[in-house]
Amino acid sequence: MRVCIVGAGDGGATAANQIRRLDSETRIDIFSKRAKLGCPPCEMPLVINGSVATWDELIRGFRQRSFWKKRNIKLHLNAEVTDILPAGKYIMAGGARYGYDKLVLALGATPSIPSFPGLDGKNEFALSTDMADGVALGNAISQHTEAAIVGGGFIGLEIATALRARGYVKTYLLVRRGILRAYLDEDMAETLEGVIKQNGLEFIMPAKIEGIVSRVKRKRVSLSEGELEVDFVFFATGSKPNVELAQKAGLQIGETGAIAVNQYLQTSDPDIYAIGDCMENWDIITGTRRRHQLAANAVRTGYIAGRNAILGNCITYEGTAMPFVTKVFGHQIGAVGFTEREAREKGLDPTSVTVDTPRLRERFNGHPARYKLIANGKTRTLVGAQIVSEEIVSGTVDKLAVAIASKMPLIKLVQIDSCYSPHVQEDQLAVPLHRLVDKLSK
Fold it and tell me: What's the CATH code, domain 324-441?
């Protein structure tokens, strides 16, 4: 058997590794158009803010050639796949032809930069999975002291945090509609906005950008309410799935603009799978199609597609509960499921509670946390949660993700045991869950 994988990022590497674990004889060829293996954009701020000393420290595991050699997987770098010929079951890469029995598309996504008037590519940066983007941004940061960040997503906020850690004199955060809008409702975002302002960022919302032009070695940002002049501009304005190769091959593209897949992650051609950022995802709550472009999702879908390709569709993909966590100025922000705004848009009759509660007792230097829980009033199941805290929130988010994925009734969730120690953790979910159950019972 022969499997070709297009894309050597987290998803493609996971798929290749699963195939090799299950079958030592299958020939596996994995292709990347880049000269070097990359890494997720979420890791790059760690080098920029100094948490990781060098870029070389990000080159580990499957980002090393030894990983592929040890597993007898043929890695093709500088080998852009230009054509997929499903009828003949082969691809063209670097002018050569490679046949396949199964093909996995891990094409990733490309930063989406709005077409503001005046953009010329000078002192303008964004992050993709190409580490060269991070290196270029890091070099620019070391040479300057003022920047504008366009976008209020987690990459933009993490870069803003890194700039302040590097002692930037001026950092403007230009946001059109809201901070972490995909994950937080307005009431929870207000808490984070306060943190951002306390840490010296110039926060402008709504920011209506009319143009961005170069002036000598600086950038001038024209807003409806005035102008800013900075050393460089960083765009954190989302990304679009790379689907051109799939379109050219005649594969179906979904309503979100990503590659349509079924529950086994097969495309419209049953011998071709799509995973990660390029695939059209769906939420586990209602089945609504969506994009979900996070590294963890690439790994999860790569695992499923790899096993299905070699074992014959043995695992179904159920969708995503959209778990998320990041860290901004010492505060962890976690979310899972729908925001209340999105739940209402989907007609779920949302009921919510917001509670401020500490995770640890004050005598052990515990910090307060803000929790928001959202339930479907009709089914009395949890459909969303948001947390802002200086404490660790990932374990709580994961616990609630399981509850949402299993559609667990709230009255059952509230009875689930939690570990407790006064100097480690208290049951931080008890109070917000009790209040949510009480509110639904009225």
Answer: 3.30.390.30
Distances in whole angstroms, Cα of residue 139 to Cα of each of 123, 143, 255: 11, 7, 39
Q: Write out the H or E segment, with its range, that includes residue 282.
A: strand 281-282
DSSP state of 316: -
The tens digit of pLDDT for each residue in 68-100 reads: 999 999 999 999 999 999 999 999 998 899 999
Domain 113-235: assigned CATH number: 3.50.50.60
Considering the domain delimited by 2-40+58-109+239-311, tell me its CATH architecture.
Answer: 3-Layer(bba) Sandwich (3.50)
Task: Look up tokens 């009709």; give the residue.
Answer: 378
**Predicted confidence (pLDDT) per residue in 279-337, tens digit:** 999 999 999 999 999 999 999 999 999 999 999 999 999 999 999 999 999 999 999 99
Which residue(s) pair with 105 in the sheet? 6, 274
Do residues 70 and 20 touch, judged by C-beta distance below 8 A? no
Measured distance CA(349)–CA(93) in Å, rounded: 51
113 contact partners, CB below 8 Å, separation of at least 6: 119, 124, 126, 235, 237
- pTM, whole model, 2 decimals? 0.94
Is residue 380 within 8 Å of 392, Cβ to Cβ?
A: no
8 Å CB contact between 271 and 301: no
Phi/psi of residue 49, each to 5°?
-90, 0
